[in-house]
Amino acid sequence: MSTAQKRAGLFDLSNVRFLQGDVGSLPFEDGSFDLVLSLLMPSFSPRILFRYLMRSV
Question: 32 lies in a domain?
Answer without folding.
Answer: yes
